[in-house]
Prior knowledge:
By secondary structure, this protein is α+β, with helices and mostly antiparallel strands. It has one domain. It is 18% helix and 24% strand. A 3-stranded antiparallel sheet has the order 2-1-3, covered by helices on one side. The chain is globular, with a radius of gyration of 11 Å.
Amino acid sequence: MLHSTSRPYQLRFRSLFDSGRGYAFPCDCAGQVDLDTLSDQARNNYLYARAMVGRELACPEIEPTELH
């Protein structure tokens, strides 16, 4: 998973089969992910997550980023 403290929201793709598993990417309040700011690995994970919606992952949800 990828977390960012620079963005107040994250786009979360939850696993359909393993509770607590999935992917999260920094986004704006509309759920738009800036692909240019992601690392190559994170970009590949994002594209994979989008392709796996309905197969391995649930539709993404926009959530506030957790503050630690």
